[in-house]
Structures are given as C-alpha cells and as structure tokens.
Write a structure and sequence with these properties.
By secondary structure, the chain is α+β, with helices and mostly antiparallel strands. The chain folds into 2 domains: 1-52; 58-295, Jelly Rolls (Sandwich), CATH 2.60.120.560. The protein is 20% helix and 41% strand. Strands 1, 2, 4, 5, 7, 12, 13, 14 and 16 form a 9-stranded antiparallel sheet that branches. The protein has a 7-stranded antiparallel sheet with strand order 3-6-15-8-9-10-11, with no helix packed on it. The radius of gyration is 30 Å and the shape is globular. 32% of the residues are buried.
Length: 301
C-alpha cells in the first residue's frame, strides 16, 4: 500500500514538473520571438530612415535679421551674415527691396562707419549672404532667382564678378566653394581657401558684351531663372562640382560646367566634409523661389 502511494506521488510530481517545464519553454520562446520582432522592427525603421534623403526648403513666413555669427541667428535653420534682412512668405524669399529706412539702426550704423559698398546704409542688400545652418555633404542645391534691380553705384565692389551664387561646403566666409552666374556673362566654379580665390571653371553663358556702365548686367531681369549646383565626393580626396541653369523656368536643367577639385592644387585639400550651403547675391534687389537642398540617395552622412 505504501509502495503504491509512493508511485502515485512520484507520477504526480513528474507531471507537475513536466507542465512547469513546458510552460516555461513556450513562454521563453514567445518572449524571444516578441523581442526578435521588436528589434527587427527598429532595424527596419532605421534602414528606412537611412534610405530617405533629407530635403530642405525655405521657411514659410519669417523675417530674419543680419547677425555677425550664426549662433545668435534669429532662425534655427538660416543665418543671414550680410544683407540687413531677408523675408520669406509662402516659401518664397527676397532681399530688402529699395532703400532701407534712414531710421533703421543698421542704416545709421553703416552711415556712421562710412561703408560705401552698402551705399552708407541705404542698401545693405548690396552684400547679401544667406547661409543654411545644417550640414550637407553630397547633395543637389537649387534656387530660382528674379532680379528686380541691379545697382548702378560707383563702388569698387560693384564689378564684373558680381552675380547670383550658391555657397557649397561652406566652412566659413574664407573657405567655401562658389557656383553661379556672373553679371558679365560667365558661369563660374570657384574655391575660396583661407581667403584666396581659385578658379576651377569659367566659361561664357552669353555672347553679349559686358560694360560696367552701359551694359552692367547680362543676367535676366524681372524674369525667373533657375540655378542648380551638385556636389559629390568621387574618391578618397576629390570633389566633383557641377552647375546647371534653367533659363525658361520650366524645370529643364542645362549643364553649363563641371570641375573636379582633386586636392592637389586650387589651394590644397578639397572640402570633403559635410558643411553648410546657401545663397549669395551682389548689388541686387532679388526674389528667390523653389529653393531646395536634397541629399544624394544612399550617401552616408
């Protein structure tokens, strides 16, 4: 009798142990599967984020004031380093149009300092520099411009090298690539390294003859035209830079020129790291539209 009871007790204990083991095994398997699904899901999200290139456009409605350093800019994405003010409305921007009020503190300051390039404070937009504060490496950058007015001031800085330009790989005002269209009828790609300009490419886009006084601007006036710049790192030391134009504002881009900075001339090492972008205009009242910076897909940042 005692022996039978021991056998029955042993069977019951075995069954209970088996049930507990099975329950633990399946709970652990389910937990592992849930964890695996969660981890995979996060990885997929991460992959999708990496595959989606960033795109940046103009803000919708804002006025940005000129500041000496980007850290105190009144906008978290844009810094106006010169030009007085820039205005954005519904994704279109423009410089100051016409004369700055004589009561404006900036007008007063420039008048007192005797700065002739901005016509003693009357036209700070003569020297217009707008920098995007984000960091971009390989990208396409485009802007559509409409020139409303080009100054006839006698200041020495109003010259044939004026125009509309993109900043590319902008480190600071002394280290940057310029791409753009000059008022003298030339398209240019330039590198400014430690304050010294180096010309990588220059060719005419117009057959008209430039004259500082009689024919001082060969760019279209009161008509929209597009400028596009592309930047690509192409090996372990080189950068390829290209410039396109859309003269008819119809989205059809014409390649005007390309250049490669191999880091062996043009002042030395190429600018390869992710840096800032932006817009420069000289001695103009101008509008900007359809601005866009877009990363090249699958470019590691």
């Amino acid at each position: 009798m005692y022996s039978d009871m021991m056998k029955i007790t042993a069977v019951i204990v075995f069954c209970i142990a088996l049930i507990l083991w099975v329950t633990f095994f399946f709970d652990k398997k389910i937990l592992m599967e849930e964890t695996k699904i969660t981890v995979t899901s996060h990885k997929e999200i991460s992959k999708n984020q990496e595959r989606t290139p960033r795109i940046e456009r103009f803000p919708r409605d804002v006025k940005i004031s000129q500041k000496n350093v980007s850290q105190i800019s009144t906008n978290d994405k844009w810094w106006l380093s010169a030009g007085g003010y820039v205005y954005f409305e519904d994704g279109t921007g423009h410089t100051l149009i016409g004369d700055l009020s004589p009561n404006d503190p900036r007008h007063v300051h420039y008048k007192q300092s005797g700065k002739s390039s901005v016509e003693y404070g009357r036209r700070p937009q003569n020297i217009f520099r707008l920098v995007h504060r984000g960091l971009w490496q390989d990208y396409d950058q485009q802007t559509y411009f409409k020139i409303d007015y080009y100054s006839d001031t006698d200041d020495m800085q109003r010259n044939k090298s004026n125009g509309v330009f993109h900043f590319n790989r902008y480190i600071d005002s002394d280290n940057v690539y310029y791409t753009g269209l000059r008022v003298d009828g030339n398209v240019v790609i330039k590198k400014k390294k430690n304050g010294t300009y180096h010309t990588l490419f220059i060719e005419p886009y117009s057959t008209e003859k430039f004259n500082k006084d009689q024919n001082r601007n060969l760019l279209p006036k009161n008509e929209w035209f597009g400028l596009k710049s592309t930047l690509r790192n192409i090996d372990d030391r080189s950068v390829e830079i290209s410039v396109f134009v859309d003269w008819d504002n119809d989205g059809i881009w014409e390649l005007l020129g390309s250049a490669v900075d191999g880091g062996r001339k043009y002042g030395g090492d190429a600018f390869r790291d992710a840096s800032h972008t932006g817009i420069r205009t000289d001695f103009m009242d101008a509008h900007f539209s359809k601005y866009e910076i877009s990363e090249k897909p699958n470019t590691p940042m």
